[in-house]
Amino acid sequence: MQIVTKKMPILKLDKSDERKEIDFELDFLTCLSRKERFEMMLRKTREIRDLLENSGHREDLKYLLKLRERQKKSGEGRGQGGTL
Asked: Domain locations in the chain?
């Protein structure tokens, strides 16, 4: 499901001004509906996850998940001597 949100405005400043940047970002976020904010958050989460996977930073997680599945199948686990 793709939700089309309002165009993202662009802030242009001559000098760096953190306060103006924060105010600008808050103004933009408050003009979005709750659904649009969540869609934007989920889209960014997927984007970060994909970047991590493509650069090899999620391999440990995949290994731990496989290990947990093996422990469940073999009857090990929390409270039964397992470590995960």
From this structure: 18-74
